[in-house]
Amino acid sequence: MLMATQTTRHFGKVAVLLGGDSAERDISLQTGRAVLDALLARGVDAHPVDTGEQPLTCLLEEGFDRAFIALHGRGGEDGVIQGALETLGIPYTGSGVLGSALAMDKVRCKRLWQNLGIPTPAFIEIESVADLEAIPEKLGLPVIVKPVHEGSSCGAAKVTEPGGLQSAWEASRQLDDRVMAECWITGGEYTAAILGETVLPMIRLETPREFYDYEAKYLAEDTQYLCPCGLPEARERELGEMMLQAFRAIDASGWGRADFMLDEAGQPWLIEVNTIPGMTSHSLVPMAARQAGMDFNDLVVRILETSLSRDGLRQEVRS
Questions:
Q1: Tens digit of each residue's pLDDT (9 = 90 or more) over 210-246
Q2: pTM
Q3: 25 burial type by CB count under 10 A (0-12 exposed, 13-18 middle, 19+ buried)
Q4: Half-sphere exposure of 186 toward its Cβ, with a 13 Å CA cutoff?
Q5: How far apart are CA 209 and CA 284, in angstroms?
Q6: Alpha-carbon span 197 to 254, nearest angstrom
Q7: In this structure, are residues 124 and 139 in contact, taking their beta carbons and an 8 Å threshold?
Q8: What tens digit of pLDDT does each residue of 37-48 get?
Q9: Residue range 271-316, pLDDT digits in tens
Q10: Positions marked active-site
Q11: CA angle 79–85–87, rounded 5-degree value
């Protein structure tokens, strides 16, 4: 991998894809602007492209050489934009089509982990009232009910009583046709940022809210981020290897974040992988990078370097 301190001219003209039209549009705009400012500060010829307002064909028409994907949620983080960029022959950052799609589909991701013996909380996909009635017996209570295809905890709710299941299911269905209930894990919440083949220092998340929800992630001022996370070095290294295994298992690559819980017995439980984590003032990957001695601008350039592995795309499309 090239070092971020080297010349950035080899990147050519870079489109920062931001905005979009998912439920996470506002967060994507924040991420995209921060990424754009960082690239410009490092001398990269970068320009914003809001995919919610501009057609992707403008990337060819305006002569862009590669794309930094700063989109969150469906349409940007689920393999759709990645497939379109491959069709156009434009190299892009982060995971490819398969890794993006699997990470975004929580049910298929968890089934794959289960088949590989990677610990993840038990769950049920809710398709009917009968599924709701089975939750207390099969999963126990509390559970967390959430859309299968949303990120940033959009539409997620903790349910402690059987009477709350239907309203939580209906609220999640406002965002996604597919909804799941997942066994609630009591314990510490952690995240592991991944850059290339390196797991950055882990972060422990603490919030006075029921869980690390949308407000705790982006709005609250009382969320605590502990980095170093407080785990013994050997234990953090062991867990880091598990996070890398889970990341690779779904064909994720380049950069991302694996979120997990440590229950009261110290057992790890994989919750999800995020292939395009936020890069805002509250975001976790920049915090972990900072603990590793990397400033925000250099981190963004290192992420842009993940697009170099796809530099053959344009030649393949044109041949």
A1: 655 556 555 556 789 999 999 999 999 999 999 999 9
A2: 0.91
A3: buried
A4: 6
A5: 18
A6: 8
A7: yes
A8: 999 999 999 999
A9: 999 999 999 867 899 999 999 999 999 999 999 999 999 988 765 6
A10: 24, 152, 218, 257, 259, 272, 274, 278
A11: 100
